[in-house]
Amino acid sequence: MNHQSSSTTVEGAYETNVENLSLWEESLERKKEDLSRLLVLLERKRQRGKVSSVPVVTLNEAVQLKDMSRFHSAVQGVATQFATKNVSKVFKQYLYPRLEHFRQFSKGVASAVQSDPTGIGSLVFGFLFIVIQCGCIFAESIETIFKQLDILQRQLPSFQVDQSMFPTNLRLKSTLQDIFCIYIDFCVTIVRNMVKKSLLVVVRNFFSSSFQQELNHLSTEISHRVADFDRDVQQCERGRSAKADETTQEILKDLQDTSLVSKQPKFPVRSVNIAENKSFVGRADELEEIFKLLIRHHREARPVSCVLHGIGGVGKTQTALKFLYQFDKEFDAIFWVSADPEKETETQRTFGNIGVQLKLFDDKEDITEAEINQVTQWFNTTDKKWLLVFDNVVKRRDLGPYWPTHCQKSSAILVTSQAQIGGVDYKIPIRPLDDQQGATFLLNQLDVDEGSSDPALREAAGKISHVLGGSPLWLKSAQGILEFGCTFQECLEQLQADVDFPGGTGSAETDREQDSNTQYEGAAIAAHDYLLKQLPPGSLDIFFMVALMNPDDVSEELLLRPPNHAKDELEFLHRKSLYLLNVAELSYANLIQRDTTNSDRPYLRTHRAVQRIVILKLGKDNYASQRQAAFARVIRVLRDFFPPPSKTQIAQADVRPRLLKVLPHLLTLLHAFEALSPAMKGDLALVELLCDVAGMDLFDQGSLNEAYWINKIAEKILDSLDTSGRDLGAPDTPDAPILTGEALKMASLRSDALTIASLSTDFMGLTKRQEGLEMRQKCKEIRRLCFRSIPGSEVTADDKIRLYNSYGDLATSFQQLNDFKGVRENMEECLRNYKLWGDEKAIPYEYAKYYSMTSFALIYENDYTTAVDYAERAYKLIDEAYPGTSSAILHKSDYALILFQTGPEGRQEAHLIMKDLLSRSEKDCGEDNLRTLELRMIFGIMLYFVENFTEARVQIEKALQTGETKIQQWPVENAVRGRYYLSQILKKINPQDTEAERMEQDAKAHLEELLKLDFTGKAAEYRGDYPMLFDYLVNWECRLVTPRQPSTTEPHRPLAGAGDLVGPEYHKERVQEDEATSAPADREQPWRKYLGEIMTVTTEEEKLAGDQYKLSEGYDDHSS
Q: What distance in Å separates the CA atoms of residue 426 and residue 1105, rounded to the nearest whole number?
């Protein structure tokens, strides 16, 4: 491309400038329209909701802030208007120190545009002000928004260079325009999220917000463009005259220092959140064996793996820590991951933090699956030698998404587990210490010089070790007893006070090989009995709380909360000096550790075995008051940190960081609640917390099993609290007594629990469908009763939304069962009310849900034209209101499924749509995401029907491999369906493929076993029709085959095959051909339409089953 000549005329320069300006304006026009519309919506919501007396700024007003002085004055005005939100403090912390950077950016944009009468450069300040002002009006915490802006600001390029180079360098102009447009997109995305949060909508069951994901993507895009921009600037600078002044040279140096190089981590990198144990002794043989396997003898370019296994408290974690600290110079990078299967969010968080350490993305609290994939890809491709430690693993499968499969240098994976897990190269047992080793360990912990110690003292230490089973963990408890002033003999007596001395078999080796955490618990319990009696009340209160929370990481951010009142039950946590004193007492007794490795985020931790003993103790009657108080305090702490979400159960992106912090603690609390004996009675405070944490936000992030389990516990607690004996699931009638007070609240909470639990069953396979249907029927009746119980003058829009949510939810269950009459009845009832609430623009989600679900019923009713129209309207409504969200992807996927069943043109368009959706999901969510997996499977089956067998095989094999190794929540039904279609593909590629035949028969055998679990009996209608049956196994939104209602006016056409699309002519030709050859027609099931010959029945048994079905439904050979 030729550069502009220096002799360009004034007229030519003006024309170029105008053309340049036109290009910028064209790229901004749609963005400005979108933002203007969003601001109008926000203002309407502000007026209706009476959120604030301050009106939302208009776009015209914002663009008048053409320079920093005007912007600063406007911001000062906002600070005054919202003084009660303490925004001045936030401005000082996040905004004012960075204003100069925004000013330089605005100046750089204006310089690139040149002739800028419309003030394009000033939009930098205008759009920024819109985000700030709207945030102050609508956001619960303005600080959250400023943290996002801070991330954005750090990505923007520096403009401390001679800006005269911008207009003359087309590459610089183009890159700068890209950066500016992404900056605008970033601001618009934040405003759009505010609109979404303020709308009263009925969220579709599977609605998934991608707000944070969008911002992360935009931030990454900016960083890439800035990298290009910085390199181009450096190149321009190097090419300038050698007489460039010293100032320019200094600026160039600054640019070089702050380019991508600064974003690279400095090796060696260490990400270990547990400090080194300086008092560690022993395990020399085990450490030597680990060194030999992972370092000395490992020279291959593949990750070698080893598991350290043994009973709880035997020292597996400490041995792994000792190894990585002792041999850290052998690796360029070392990372530690907590792998608790009961709290996968903790695994995701600690694994995701590796990406922060590697500077793959900015520090953040919520890690997406796409970012997990980024980290895994780094392990697979880096030229650095790394060590990755997974602590406390139960099953190798649990680590599927996190386990690197390749490396460029001889790297290693070290695992700790109580089980001898499979899928690793080597297994090293960590056994209890023998009496001599245990004595050495205990004396070392007490700082007793082993060489000068009394033999009698050593003998007593050996006896203590024997009583405690040689467990380093329990020996630490004995250390606590001794440090409180007991003699060795008194300590031994204390340990034996309530338990028998372990007899054993006569063989120390055999005794110590017993893999049981309870073998020596009697002595350990006795040790803790003594220790707990020595602690002050405040220390006991903290200890019992920590024992009911995630033992790996009780952040002080949770505990040290400002008091809500002058005095309350958490007062001992509000005075930090008293808190630290109480924690010191617990550390002294070796009951907990306070880790300050990260000084900005200190946390408490305890061992799981200690936690188990405490829970056993809390079950005793003499600890009843402490048990009740500890539960109440943990609930209060979690409640303070996780405020109640939307009553309409709408997922909110900004809730995710808090959810990820609270969830591990809530799961631990519930495991304790379930394990306590005698059983503990819950209360409404616990139920409310359960329903809120395990609400749509938890479902939204894909934690289906946790969401289901927590809500079932909430329902069980409500059962114990409800003494009325009333059957809330019975059909509601006008003359039934209404609910008031606590009964109304309990019923409302029960409906919330039923909503999420039933929603989770949609993705749990065939066996849960009947349960999901029954829960939704019950939920609908409860919400009808609740709605009727609210005085008319007190009914809110939220109350209406909650009621008709239950109708839509019930329609989803009917959709699962192919009961399209039930779908129609419930969705039509919803539609009647939607029309009273507003039009499609006012409440797009409600109408989109109606159109999408009804489109499948229309396919069943043979009304294909209306079905396509409805499905298209559904996805366009969502795409227009919230483009790029997960909900838009889901609705468009439904549209593709409808199109695919309506003929050749629709099938081709559907194939292209699904290909695009899969590509977007891979980019936004990662290849190992559950939704990506489902899209890939659908796409692969579509490819099969369009006869692209090679690519279909690739997609389905990849889906099967991902689902079976990396997606823990992938139902077996999906895998069986995938293997069936893969067998059909392989048979098409090679009809003689015996492996394909075996795979097909295996899939059919699994199908028969699964259908035995279909308690609805619906599948019996499709007996012998394998495509229909295999589709019936999976969630309705993954199905490509919709059954058809018998029609008296239009004959059904058979299923069309790949490359042989059909219509009425095809059906007629098939009949004539059959009659001419006197052979029976290949009669198809009545639902088959437009998909072709590929899926025709082939065996005599299948033909017979199909014929029997037709006869029962009144079909003859030549009509449907």
A: 53
3-state DSSP helix/strand/coil percent for the chain, to nearest 5? 65, 5, 30
Q: How many CA atoms lie within 13 A of 949 on its CB side?
A: 14
Structure tokens that stand for 624 in this block: 């009843």
Q: How far is CA 415 from CA 317, 386, 764, in A?
A: 9, 14, 30
pLDDT for residue 557: 87
Distance CA 108, CA 120 (A): 11
Q: What pLDDT score was predicted for residue 988?
A: 93
CA within 13 Å, CB half, 650: 20
Distance of CA 655 to the CA centre of its chain: 12
DSSP conformational letter for 1060: B
Gap between the Cα atoms of 394 and 397, Å rounded: 9
**Cα dihedral 386, 390, 395, 397 in deg (nearest 10):** -40
Q: Is it the case that residue 999 has pLDDT exceeding 90?
A: yes
Q: What is the pLDDT of residue 525?
A: 87
3-state secondary structure string across 958-983: HHHHHHHHHCCCCCHHHHHHHHHHHH
Q: Taking a C-beta distance cutoff of 8 angstroms, is the pair 765, 809 a contact?
A: no
**Token digits of residue 368:** 């997406």
- Token code pair at residue 960: 């099967």
Percent of the chain's residues with pLDDT above 90? 31
Tokens representing 738? Answer: 């209404």
Tell me, letter by letter, the H, E, C secondary structure of 205-238.
CCCCCCHHHHHHHHHHHHHHHHHHHHHHHHHHHH
Residue type, 915: K
Supply the pLDDT for residue 50.
66
Give, for 461, the enclosing helix (H) or strand (E).
helix 455-467
- Sign of the dihedral defined by the CA atoms of residues 965, 967, 969, 972, in that order: negative
Distance between CA atoms of residues 693 and 700, nearest Å? 12
Q: Answer positive or negative: Cα dihedral of 305, 310, 312, 318.
A: negative
Instruction: Reduce the DSSP state of residue 309 to 3 states and report it.
Output: strand
Any idea how long the chain is?
A: 1120
The CA distance from 815 to 819, in Å, is 6
Distance from C-alpha of 903 to C-alpha of 859, rounded to nearest angstrom: 12
Confidence of residue 827 (pLDDT cuts 50, 70, 90): very high
- Three-state SS letters, 1092-1119: CHHHCCCCHHHHHHHHHHHHHHCCCCCC
pLDDT over 60 (residue 246): no
Sheet holding 603-605, edge to edge: 554-555, 603-605, 593-595
Cα–Cα distance, 643 to 564 (Å, whole number): 14
473, 609 contact by CB (below 8 A): yes
- Pairwise pLDDT comparison (506 vs 180), residue with the higher score: 180
Q: Cα(1011)–Cα(1029) distance, rounded to whole angstroms?
A: 9
DSSP letters of 833-902? HHHHH--TTTSHHHHHHHHHHHHHHHHHTT-HHHHHHHHHHHHHHHHHHSTTSHHHHHHHHHHHHHHHTS
Do the bridges between strand 603-605 and strand 554-555 make them parallel or antiparallel, or are there none, so unpaired? antiparallel
51-64 pLDDT, tens per residue? 678 888 888 888 88
Instruction: Measure the CA–CA gap between 368 and 194, rounded to whole angstroms.
Output: 21
- pLDDT at position 200 is 32
Distances in Å between the Cα of 224 and the Cα atoms of 28, 260, 354, 379, 480 are: 21, 9, 21, 21, 55
Would you give the DSSP letter of residue 1055?
Answer: P
Beta strands, E only, 596-637: 603-605
Secondary structure of residue 456 in the 3-state scheme: helix
Residue 120's alpha-carbon distances to 370, 531, 820, in angstroms, are 34, 70, 53
Q: For the chain, what is the mean pLDDT?
A: 78
Tell me the residue type at 784.
R
Structure-block tokens of residue 249: 């040279």
Buried-exposed string 294-315: b where 16+ CB fall within 10 A, e elsewhere: bbeebeeeebbbbbbbbbbbbb
How much is the CA Rg of the chain, to the nearest whole Å? 33
Indicate if the pLDDT at residue 364 is higher than 90.
no
